[in-house]
Known about the structure:
The chain is α+β, with helices and mostly antiparallel strands. It contains six helices and six strands.
Amino acid sequence: MRDDSIPDELLVAAAQEALRDLNRTPDNRAVLDTLVACDILVPEPVEFVARRSPEDGRLTLPVIDDPPQPHTVPVFTSVERMLQTLPDVRLGHQVQLGLLAANWPTDEELALAIDLGHPDALIFAGQEVHNLLVPPWR
């Protein structure tokens, strides 16, 4: 659960610092745990905006088929980074990364890309999402 007393700017900065640090030291569990606790934005593609969300309240994951990893769900640490990569997307759903990972599809072909298009971007294969990003308190 998120502490609403912490300003959004600090949470964005923490997520972006964690990405940068994980690119330098990928096995740093403390930094990975920080990233897992942060909120990210799941973009809603333009073609989905006109339609209602699924009736059961589930989030529709946008999947792109683009190298380096086919069948990738892009998520972003900020609106700015989302718009740099996907300028036509105007809506993003804020969700805690650990919560998204805990509910990640079992399809091992589906990868998760955080801040795709940015130098600090990280891509997690399907099994890595389950093994590395699901919080221990799940």
